[in-house]
Amino acid sequence: MNNFIRRAFDKIEKLSTDEIKTLVRYQASENELLGNILQKIDLGVVITNGMGRVLTCNDAVKHLLPISRQFTEGTSLRYVLADADIAKFMLSALDTVTDDREIEEEFHLQHGDKVRTLFIQASSYISNLDPFFQHDNGKRVLFIVQDISEEKRREARLHRSESLASLTTVAAGVAHEIKNPLASIGIHLQLLRKAFQRKKTLTLDDAKRYLDVIDEEIERLNGIVVDFLFAVRPMDVHLRLEQVNRVIDDVINFVGYELSEHAISITRNLQEFLPKLRLDENLMKQALLNIIKNAMNAMEPNGGILTVTTKLSGDNVVLNISDTGSGMDEATLSKIFEPYFTTKDTGSGLGLTMVFKVVKEHNGEISVSSKKGEGTSFTITLPVPTSERLALEAAHTS
After folding, report:
1. pLDDT in tens, 311-341
2. For residues 48, 53, 55 and 56, what is the CA-based torsion angle, rounded to 10 degrees?
3. Confidence (pTM)
């Protein structure tokens, strides 16, 4: 209610009949304008009281939400929502949302041969109307329903394009990698053929040096193919709620002896009482181990300090792994996540590619900063699940 109407209601006993009629006409005009605006927007809008009874809604929401019967003012949400997951979310929102706590969720619905994705936000406010008009405690719950199917399809197309570009890069890397072993195999087959031509017959000892090289190069080719399949295959990810600090401690304890052998000391700054995250423990451990191994190589031969930090930042947990190693120049820094890129004499060049893939599978982000001669810092940002966020908020308000 705007301030003009509120002030008028406060003085309604002093108003004449004509002034009250004018006030009612004004309010009716305002309501009509707002109603027209509400009907013209593409978003679905529903406002209920604290018990879930619909106070107002627009036509868009009737087309967006799966409903089982007529959806009008006065209807209870409990009896009209046809999808069990949406019903559970909206009905639970009646109790969980407050003035300073909103909740949101995505829902996927089969619509013919297509999948429709709805994004629903729930928030609340307290109405300042006189209880005589409310017949309740004044709590109002606002639901905004949006069809984001096209947005999701665009994201999927972009993801496919990125995957294709990544596959092209990996394929180019494979083509480059297989040239040398194939050339070596060809050369030693020619040498073996010439040896046959010279001697007419060869003993195993005569042929052994050629066959050994061919065996080594075939094994090398097999390794390249295995690495290629790893780079292009989707990961088999099993996410469970886990304490990220425990996962980090396990990795550091596992590699601790090796670090000490390389004169590397470890500093842990792990924030206590972090919310649990949805993690694939094995994959995350492998990713962290790859980063730590890289840091260890960067600090050879003089050793240094490895610092691991975790902290809660908004709706994310931020994990940082820093070293005091040799660092990287900008050219190297821009390529470190590319498949088959490596600055080492040995290695597949897929270690940090794997790290990047694991973080993305966890809906996280990874960034790296480095300065030549000063060290490198990897920062992984992982989202806190909605259930854990709500638990944290409840703990803070209790």
Report:
1. 999 889 999 999 999 888 887 777 777 665 5
2. 80
3. 0.51
3.30.450.20, 3.40.50.2300, 3.30.420.10, 3.30.559.30: which CATH number matches 41-147? 3.30.450.20
d(C-alpha 238, C-alpha 344), whole Å? 32
Per-residue exposure over 7-40, b if at least 16 CB sit within 10 Å of its own CB, e if not? ebeeeeeeeeeeeeeebeeeeeeeeeeeeeebee
| Three-class DSSP category at 311 | strand
CATH number, domain 240-397: 3.30.565.10
Mean pLDDT in residue range 364-382: 91
Cis peptide before 301 (omega within 30 of 0): yes
- What pLDDT, on the 0 to 100 scale, is given for residue 131? 44
Residue with tokens 């120049």: 329
Question: Considering the domain 154-232, what is its CATH architecture?
Answer: Orthogonal Bundle (1.10)
CA atoms within 13 A on the CB side of 318: 12
